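User: Assemble these into one structure.

Assistant: Restating your components, then the assembled model:
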Amino acid sequence: MDSVFDELYQKYHHDVFQFLFYMVRNKEQAEDLVQEVYIRVFKSYHRFEGKSSEKTWLFSIARNVAIDSFRKQKGWKGRLLEKLDWSSSQVKDEYPIPEEIMVHKEEVKWIYQCLEHCTVDQRSVVILRFLNDLSITETAETLGWTESKVKTTQHRALKVLKKYMEMFNEKEGSESEKVRVER
Amino acid sequence: MKKSEWSDKQLEELLRQMPQIHDDRNPRDIYQNLSIKKRKRPAWLIPGFAAAAALLLFFLLVPKMLNGTQNSFDSAKQEESSSEAEMSKSDDHSSLLMKKEDSISGSEPEMRITEMNKNSLYDDEVGDGTVITYWIPDSQAQNLVPISIVITPDNNKNWLTNFTESMELLNEEEWGLSDYYPVNAKFELDDTKNTVIVDVPKNHQYGQGSTAEINFITTLKNNIASNSNVNKIMLKTDGQPGIELGNYGVLEEIEVKPEGKHAYFFYKPDGMDTTYLVPSIDTYQDISAAFEAMKTDHQELGLTASLVPSFPIKGVTTKENKLIITLEENAEMENNLETVYSYEAILLTAKDFGIDTITILNAPIQLLGPFDLTQEMKVPLAPNHRQIH
């Protein structure tokens, strides 16, 4: 096996996969995309100058791959395929919560669902910061932003999450009330 | 129970609690898939090239195929299409004239009145051009069909040069005849002796079989009689006097004298709508005998009767060079192409008997195709006019 691949896999595969999964919220797609990340890495590995850390470089590639996949989905091809492929569209429409998350407590499920309402940038920041445990500086490097932009985006993302979490809370509250009344 | 505000800290904590998702695949598989994907580019290119090549072939072949079908269609309907083309080209003068006549008489409009609805060439149609008549053997080499074309003559050249140069323009096969021209011989005019010298090469094909010989001699005689007043042909082979022909022996010269007194019949090449007017090989004593003969077919030569029942001649009288034809009274004449050709066969036969003009008496209809039967009619300049490209 290629030694470069081996090294990258050992060091970053898990993190990159994690990031991609939470970006696209679909395990199969994440698997495809991580593949694409490796292809792009190998294509431009010789151009990697070590200006930034290997880690942030890899994450920035992963983010671009994810964004490209969103674009593709939105393009005519994606729409056409969606229309033609009934089974896939049905699955997608329902956005099932993956098994790995289902087994966790209610609040985790909620926040997973709330993440959907964030913009791509906001989601990137949230995932990089809290799931991949990158520092503000590393996140800024990955996204090619200033640190302050990372901070404000993070703030806004949390605000969105908060708003939707409240809604889950209320729903939950009313449901438990209903149960009480029936009793 | 309502939990109030979520703090940022709580949210962050929740996010951190989100489960780790693992890629369950073996890194070996991932690596293998990578190399498959890397190879996928050329794999995508090959069908692309194939599609491009197929498209290229398609575009190359389709026009050819279209042309091919058009060609066969053309030859099947050659006469029709060429007459159609003629119609659009036909000069305004004649079509205007015909319209005028049509409105006066109100005669049957079902026949399209165009130049091509007649067979021969007339005085007023030639303009500055020169008429050349070529005698072309039919596809069975039984009859010689006189075909006339109009060329723009080069006045610096004599008639013989114009004649030989225009041989190239003939499309015998397209016209349903056999490919005969250009003749494999050098033509030379000797004005002082009023003689044409024909010089064939040593390996000429004209002595092979009696039909070839007869056709060669007859076409030469007829071509020169039709297009000039020359009265003698000198024959040479490769510069040496005489030409060796099986049936004739060595032939050094041929007398050319206008024969005349032939009757014109219909000749229809196989599988074509065209009707040619072809003179008989026999000659007739007088014009009445010729007209009588024209009522019956000459099956052995593939010629059909040219005097159709729709042209009922009661009697003919000749006065000097004028012919007066009386038709049966109350006869029914159909205004169709066949009757037009009959009329032209009469005109050409009359011309062969030295007649200049024809008058029809008792004509049941005034207009027959492009002809006004009430007017005195001049005989045609030449038979079987064909367009050349």
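Chain A touches chain B through 40 residues (CB under 8 Å).
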